[in-house]
Amino acid sequence: MVKQNELAPPPGAKHKRKRVGRGIGSGHGVFSGRGVKGQKARSGMRMRPGFEGGQLPIIKRMPSKRGFTNLFRKEYAVVNLGRLNVFDDGAEITPQRLLEVGLVKSLRKPIKILGNGVITKALTVKANHFSKSAQEKIKASGGRTEVLDDVPGATL
């Protein structure tokens, strides 16, 4: 049985504190391991991460860090028009039907129909948003479009 007074850290786990500025014989006297003069030798010296001595830091030189990100961007689950040909002629396409067929992964994002591809069937398509070309192609094929309100609880 282990007794509390016999507990000890394993050998090599504990180290003596380095005592600097205690004479030349200690090996850490005079400049205390800080080198000779300069910014890093001063007391209270602190440099933020990524500081390059006043040179333009690499993080600012990288092209990927330039530009603008719109925090209020609305993300859509997009479906191209050509993929709607899996439905029967005259079918009513709702977000729920798109989910069942596997054209969208979830209903958390509003659905947008894009005009990429050719539609050959007259379909009634219900979605949150349509591109102009998608609307024109659906109407040209004899179908119709219905705009739904945005999804409640959708992440914008």
How does this structure look, described?
With 156 residues, the protein is of the alpha/beta class. The protein is built from three helices and six strands, in the order H-E-E-H-E-E-E-H-E. The protein has a domain at 77-147: Ribosomal Protein L15, Chain: K, domain 2. It has helices at 58-61, 95-101, 132-140; strands at residues 77-80, 92-93, 111-114, 124-127, 129-130, 144-147. It has a three-stranded parallel β-sheet with strand order 1-3-5. It has a three-stranded parallel β-sheet with strand order 2-4-6. The longest helix has 9 residues, at 132-140. The two termini are 61 Å apart. The model has no long low-confidence stretch (mean pLDDT 91).
List the defining traits of the structure above.
156 residues; alpha/beta; Ribosomal Protein L15, Chain: K, domain 2; 3-stranded parallel sheet; 6 strands
Number of strands: 6
**Strand arrangement, major sheet:** 1-3-5
**How many separate helices?**
3
Instruction: Give the second-level CATH assignment, the architecture of the domain at 77-147.
Output: Ribosomal Protein L15, Chain: K, domain 2
In whole angstroms, how far apart are the ends? 61 Å
Q: What composes the largest sheet?
A: 3 strands, parallel
CATH level-1 class of the domain at 77-147: Alpha Beta
The CATH topology of the domain at 77-147 is Ribosomal Protein L15, Chain: K, domain 2
What coarse outline follows from CA principal-axis ratios?
elongated
Low-confidence stretches: none
Computed structural class: alpha/beta
| Share in helix | 10-25%
**Helix/strand order:** HEEHEEEHE
Strand content: 5-15%
Mean pLDDT across residues: 91
Radius of gyration: 33 Å
